[in-house]
Every structure is written in structure tokens, then in C-alpha cells.
Write a structure and sequence with these properties.
By secondary structure, the chain is mainly alpha-helical. The protein is 69% helix and 0% strand. The chain is globular. The C terminus is likely disordered.
Length: 321
């Protein structure tokens, strides 16, 4: 629980979680509060006004409604793919690192095969031959995205496999599955969360990209199909910026929120970044703005920061040791 408390106290994490929470809330209840996203409501390519806040498409559909409705499918695919990719990667990685021997050889070979195959080109080829739809897109992204997580988790498992608590669990007669998922896996919480965030960012971007290339079901309202129809109807030539910008900004903001959370996790779990953050706090308390150069502080300027330095010293000395 201390990891999550540190995460909630991190400014970058607060920004990312707040922004992501807003989008999740919009995707959950937003479609019930807006007009029918597929209905022809007004003059085609009408600019934003008081009635249609983000204007209309070339078919007279409400861009605001399409942006809100499209969030649900895109975020759902992104989070679903992130969860499944991390689950597969964690299972394969822990099994390879824990069992070793021929199990490690076979699973590592399988992982390396998927790592050397370019993910996005393979996703494009598979999506072109499968039935168009969100399920096919999710399947393609899961198939092409699990290997990296498996490789990283295998390396961490190899390190944890030699720890005393694992040896104690083996001597105590605990089953292999219990040791893998109840002893080793909880010690990789930050790595798992970071992998999930990375996989989710990849999934949302890839899903939007594949549907923009017409490899999804273009009759469904998603962020990807919004961009597809905008490009298909020559939005740039007609200067209908309002059919592109809202969806593009939403994708960018969701990616920004997830990356901020990932940065916060890295700051919490990386000892070097934790140590750097502690010294920056001491320097700021002395009235000096941290920069690339090493600040030189007078003894008197540190008088007001002694308490902060004393509180940071135990943690910093422990990390240094």
C-alpha cells in the first residue's frame, strides 16, 4: 500500500490520474448525455456554434457527440488490451524465469520470435484479413504486443528467483504456482503497472491508427473512424479543422495522462530518481533553483532547511548503501 500512497502524493501522478479519470467518466456516462452520434442533424460541415459546439461532419453529424461516443470504444480496447497483454507477458515471463531449463528455452524462443517481427506491420496484415471490428483489432494488438512485457518480467524473475524469501517458500513446501504468483509477482507491482500503462498507450494509438487506415469497422463510432471519415471527406482541403482536432486532442491528452502516470511510477521506484528528488527538495528549501550545474550553498542559507535535510538523510543514506 505504501507504493500507492506515494503514487497519490506525486504531482505528476495526480495530474495524470485526474485527466485520465475525466476521460473515463466521459466514456462511461457521456454517450447517454449527447445526441445520436450517427444521426444526420444539420448542414454538412457546419463550423462550431452555440448549438453544435464542435460543428458537424460532412454528413451533418454532431462532432461533439462523435468525440464523446468514440471515447468509450477506444478506451475500452486500450485498457482491455493493456490488461491481457500484461497478463500474458507476466505469465510467460515468470514461468520462463522461475522454471528455467527447457521451459525457459522454449518460452524465450517464442518471445524472441514475436520481438523480432515488426509489430505494427504485422498488425496491419492481420487486421486486413480478419473480420473488421473491435474484437479483431483487440486480438491483433494482443498478439503483437505481449512479447516485450514477457522479456522484461523474465529478467526480473531471474533476479528474484535467487532471493532468500523464494528459497524459504520452496523449503516450506509451497506449490510452484503459489511461489510464482503470490511470492514473486507482488514484488514486481511497479513493473507490472508500468508495463500496463505502456501497453495501454500502444493499444490506443495502434487502434486509432488501424481504424484510420480503414482496417476496422468504419460503421462504428470510435476515435479512429472519426479520423478516417474526416480524412476520407477531405477535411484538410475544405479547411474543416473541427472534424479532426477534437479527436486528435483527446488521443493526445489520454496518452499524456498515461505517460505522466508512468513518469510518476518511475520516480517512485527508481532509487536514483528518489535520491535526486530528495536533494532537489533540500536545494529548493535553501532558495536555490535546481539546474544542470551543481549549486554551492552557504552554511547560513541552509539554516531553514535543516529539518528537511534531516528528514531526507536517512532515506538517502539507505539508498546510497
Amino acid at each position: 500500500m505504501s507504493f500507492f500512497r506515494q503514487l497519490l502524493s506525486n504531482r505528476k501522478a495526480n495530474i495524470g490520474l485526474t485527466l485520465l479519470g475525466v476521460f473515463v467518466l466521459i466514456a462511461t456516462i457521456g454517450p447517454y448525455l449527447v445526441r445520436d452520434a450517427s444521426e444526420f442533424l444539420t448542414t454538412p460541415l457546419s463550423p462550431p456554434d452555440s448549438e453544435f459546439w464542435l460543428g458537424s461532419t460532412s454528413q451533418g453529424q454532431d462532432v461533439f457527440a462523435q468525440t464523446i461516443v468514440g471515447a468509450r470504444t477506444s478506451l475500452l480496447i486500450g485498457f482491455l488490451v493493456g490488461i491481457v497483454v500484461v497478463a500474458i507477458g507476466a505469465t510467460v515471463g515468470i514461468a520462463a524465469g522461475f522454471f528455467g531449463g527447457w521451459v525457459d528455452d522454449v518460452l524465450s524462443l517464442l518471445t524472441n520470435v514475436f520481438l523480432i517481427i515488426p509489430g505494427l506491420p504485422l498488425a496491419v496484415v492481420l487486421a486486413a484479413y480478419l473480420e473488421a471490428g473491435p474484437v479483431s483489432i483487440a486480438f491483433v494488438l494482443i498478439l503483437t504486443g505481449w512479447a516485450w512485457n514477457a522479456r522484461v518480467i523474465r529478467a526480473q524473475t531471474l533476479s528474484l528467483r535467487r532471493k532468500d524469501f523464494v528459497a524459504a517458500a520452496i523449503v516450506a513446501g509451497e506449490s510452484r504456482l503459489r511461489i510464482m504468483f503470490f511470492e514473486i509477482l507482488p514484488n514486481m507491482t511497479s513493473l507490472i503497472v508500468s508495463g500496463f500503462i505502456g501497453a495501454t498507450v500502444y493499444a490506443i494509438g495502434a487502434q486509432v491508427g488501424l481504424e484510420f487506415l480503414a482496417l476496422g469497422d468504419v460503421s462504428k463510432v470510435t476515435w479512429g473512424t472519426n479520423l478516417y471519415w474526416a480524412a476520407n471527406n477531405q477535411a484538410l482541403l475544405t479547411e474543416s479543422w473541427w472534424t479532426i482536432v477534437p479527436t486528435g486532442v483527446c488521443v493526445a491528452l489520454v496518452g499524456f495522462a498515461l505517460v505522466m502516470i508512468n513518469f510518476a511510477i518511475d520516480e517512485i521506484t527508481n532509487p536514483r530518481l528518489r535520491s535526486e528528488g530528495g536533494w532537489k527538495a533540500v536545494v529548493r528549501a535553501a532558495g536555490v533553483t535546481p539546474g544542470f550545474s551543481t549549486p554551492v550553498l552557504r552554511r547560513g542559507s541552509l539554516a531553514d532547511s535543516n529539518a528537511l535535510a534531516d528528514s531526507s538523510a536517512p532515506a538517502l543514506s539507505k539508498e546510497a548503501s
